[in-house]
Amino acid sequence: MNTPEQAAPGQQFGEKIKAKGAISYAELVDLMQGKDSLRIKVKGTVEEVCQKKGCWLTLKAERPGDKPLFTGFKDYAFFMPKDLSGHVVVMQGLAYRELVPVEQLQHLAEDAGASPEEIAAITEPEEQLRFVADGVLVVE
Description:
- By secondary structure, the chain is α+β, with helices and mostly antiparallel strands.
- The chain has a single domain (12-138), classed as CATH 2.40.50.
- Helix content is 16%, strand content 37%.
- The chain has a five-stranded mixed barrel with strand order 3-4-5-7-6.
- A hairpin with a 7-residue loop joins β3 (37-49) and β4 (57-59).
- The longest helix is centred in the last third of the chain and has 10 residues, at 102-111.
- The two termini are 23 Å apart.
């Protein structure tokens, strides 16, 4: 698996996808009301990328009250460049709701470079809207 060190528009990861038909993350949040899961294509700005190996990313929340969209990659078949933060991407895959256990929240905080104090402050599981991407296209 050869992930480029630097992100650039036009790069494809996983399945080849097109940007056409993608909805915004805010629209996804609205569409997920009352649903457990939904196959969809979503477009947004990357907020954070796993700095260990690029094995997850988050999309920035577009509205106050929404949380960043945690995204993993189907079957860990591909990873993202670690400098993808700030780039706009289109992702195709499955949006779903999950109760995330404390241990996983702490692990993700550690991957993101949180301090030991910030990690220790995570003491409750959290229901989150999440995404598993089949394919990712770097748009900008």
